[in-house]
Amino acid sequence: MYRFLLSRQWVILTLLALVLIPVMIELGFWQLHRHQHRVAQNTLIANNLKAKPVPVTELTSPGHTVPRADYWRQVEATGRYDTEHEVVVRRRTNTDETVGFHVLTPFVLADGRAVLVNRGWVPFGADQRTFPDIPAAPKGEVTVTGRLKADETTGTSGIKELSDLPDRQVMLINSEQQATSLGRTVLGGYIEQTAPAAPGGSPQQIPKPDSSSIGAHMAYAVQWWLFTAAVPVGWVILVRREVRDRASAATRSTPERETAAA
């Protein structure tokens, strides 16, 4: 009755089902791991944003790579802005997804070392290659508070470096690159400024990262596992249908043979 399972068509169908089952199980676990990663990231963001600000020099130093555990930690620094070496970071968007620049200003500490401060977003000037009009940073000694971020690289950000950039424009926020142009020691990573707020709201401060959305990864995981369960169920249904159809065909053919014999 089940010899049809040895036919080429059914062997291929069965092998396909056997391949799909582990693949879809693995896809389900992949989505589960993405969900777990997102939950852990949200917890890290929420905890670091709630933490009391600490001096930036407690968490980073020259050449230091900011670890993920310190991303978005609240830090503060006292010093003065070095606006002569201010640059803008190309192709950055604001909350409305409008493309413009981020304003990156070196901030010189009392000991002569500097830390990079991302003061926020400004729109294009005449075009993307023209240096924009930037509201001046406060003069004299000030205290800056913000979120600690790691240096950007092409590998971590996906942003490609360009070799023909206009003067005072960069693609990445990277302390080592800026240390070369500044001619002074620069702390690793940078500060995403949150205070003091710029007069008139420009540069626009970068909004804090979202720590509430977890996405649909768990739903996708469950969906893949339901698909996994559906494969053997579907295979059994198809086999039973084939058996039923073959039995029905055999029943119809029996009277025909008897009539022919008579």
UniProtKB/TrEMBL annotation:
It is a multi-pass membrane protein. It holds the Pfam family SURF1. InterPro entries: Surf1/Shy1, Surf1/Surf4. It is found in: Cell membrane; Membrane. It comes from the Bacteria. Signal peptide: none annotated. The chain crosses the membrane at residues 12-32, 218-238. The keyword Transcription regulation does not apply. Keywords: Cell membrane, Membrane, Transmembrane, Transmembrane helix. Coiled coil: none annotated. Belongs to the SURF1 family. This is SURF1-like protein. The lineage of its organism: Bacteria, Bacillati, Actinomycetota, Actinomycetes, Kitasatosporales.
